[in-house]
Design brief:
The protein is of the alpha/beta class. The chain is built from 10 helices and 10 strands. The radius of gyration is 20 Å and the shape is globular.
Length: about 325
C-alpha cells in the first residue's frame, strides 16, 4: 500500500480507501461488511469513509461496531454532516447548532471518542459561511474532531472558507471530497487547482462510477449480483450513462486494459491516482473480492503515453467554451 499526505495536514491516507455509501448498513449484511473492512485493513487500507445520512445513521452504526474489533488508533475514520436526519427542519444543514448535535450523534453511533476527519457533506446556502467555519473550528477545539473538510464545494466556496479561517485564526479545512472518475471530469476545471494551491487533500468518491467502470457491465448484460440489480441500491445507479456512446468508449478502454495486462477497474483507478493533487480514491465494495480487486490497482502505474491514449478515447476533458482549447488543472494558459 502507498500512503499520501492529506493536503497540509499530518494525516497520511492509503491511496485506495474504503467507502460505505449504499453498502455498509444498507446494501450488504453486517457480516459481509465486517469481512470487507477487515480485508481492506489487512491489505493496508487505513481510511474508512462514511456519513450520518447513509441510511440515516445505520452505516455509522455498523462501522462503530467494527471499530470495537480492531485497534482504533491505526484507522482513520471520516464521516460527514449536512443531510436531513429526520423530517424535522432543524436536523440538517451546517449551522452551529446542527453541526454540534450531528457530531455528537455520530460519535455515539461510531462508538469512538473522536472523529479523524469531519466533513461538510455539501455547501449550506442557508447558513453564513463564517458560522460554519467557526462551528468546525469549535469542534476541533473541543476535541470532538481532529481535522475538518468539505465535500462537493465549488472553488469559490473553498477559497472563501480558507480566507475566513485565516482572518479569524481558526482551523482551516484540510480536504475536499468530490466526485471524480473517467466519466465525470468537472473537478479538473478549477476545483482541483484551487485545492492544490490552498493545500487541501482530495479524497475522491465514485472513482468507478458505481461500478460502471469496473468492466462487469456491457450493452446486453447486467450482473444479477451487481448494484444496478439491487432493489436497495439501483435507485442511485447512473443508468443515464448506459448509452451506446458510453459502451463504444468502454469497449475501447477494455481493449487497452487487456493489452496492458490490467483489469478495467485497475485502469480507472490508476488514471485517477495519476493526477498528483489526488490523495486517495474512496472505493465501495459489497464483497471481499472487490476489495482485493480495487487494491490490486496499485500493482500498476500508467505512463504519460498511456494516459494520453485514454484521454483520446474519452475526449471529455474540460475545454474553453469559446475557443475549445483544453483548460483546467495541469494546463498552462498562454495569451488571451
Amino acid at each position: 500500500m502507498i500512503y499520501r499526505q492529506l493536503g497540509n495536514s499530518g494525516l497520511h491516507i492509503s491511496e485506495i480507501s474504503l467507502g460505505t455509501w449504499l453498502t455498509v448498513g444498507m446494501g450488504v449484511d453486517k457480516h459481509t461488511a465486517f469481512d470487507c473492512m477487515q480485508k481492506a485493513i489487512e491489505l493496508g487500507v487505513n481510511f474508512i469513509d462514511t456519513a450520518d445520512i447513509y441510511n440515516r445513521g445505520e452505516s455509522e452504526k455498523v462501522v462503530g461496531e467494527f471499530l470495537k474489533t480492531i485497534n482504533r488508533e491505526e484507522i482513520i475514520i471520516g464521516t460527514k454532516a449536512f443531510g436531513p436526519m429526520s423530517e424535522h427542519n432543524m436536523t440538517q444543514g451546517l449551522s452551529l447548532r446542527h453541526l454540534r448535535n450531528a457530531c455528537e450523534a455520530s460519535l455515539l453511533r461510531l462508538k469512538t471518542d473522536y472523529i479523524d476527519l469531519y466533513q461538510c457533506h455539501r455547501y449550506d446556502v442557508d447558513t453564513p459561511l463564517e458560522e460554519t467555519c467557526y462551528a468546525m473550528h469549535n469542534l476541533v477545539e473541543r476535541g470532538y474532531i481532529l481535522y475538518w473538510g468539505v465535500s462537493q464545494w465549488t472553488a469559490v466556496q473553498i477559497t472563501n472558507a480558507m480566507r475566513i479561517c485565516e482572518k479569524n485564526g481558526w482551523r482551516k479545512p484540510v480536504s475536499n471530497q468530490p466526485i471524480y472518475n473517467l466519466l465525470n471530469r468537472s473537478l479538473e476545471l478549477d476545483v482541483m487547482d484551487v485545492c492544490e494551491k490552498e493545500g487541501l487533500g482530495i479524497v475522491v468518491y465514485s472513482p468507478l462510477a458505481q461500478g460502471l467502470l469496473s468492466g462487469k457491465y456491457s450493452r446486453d448484460y447486467i450482473p444479477t449480483d451487481s448494484r444496478a440489480s439491487s432493489e436497495l441500491m439501483k435507485t442511485y445507479f447512473p443508468v443515464k450513462r448506459m448509452n451506446d456512446d458510453f459502451f463504444d468508449k468502454l469497449d475501447l478502454l477494455k481493449k487497452l486494459a487487456n493489452d496492458w495486462n490490467m483489469s478495467m477497474s485497475n485502469l480507472a483507478l490508476n488514471w485517477i491516482l495519476n493526477h498528483s493533487p489526488i490523495t486517495c480514491t474512496i472505493t465501495g465494495a459489497s464483497r471481499v473480492s472487490q476489495v482485493e480487486e480495487n487494491v490490486s490497482a496499485l500493482n500498476f502505474k500508467l505512463t504519460n503515453e498511456q494516459v494520453e491514449q485514454i484521454d483520446l478515447i474519452l475526449d471529455n476533458a474540460p475545454v474553453d467554451q469559446y475557443s475549445g482549447v483544453r483548460i483546467g488543472w495541469g494546463i498552462v494558459k498562454r495569451g488571451y
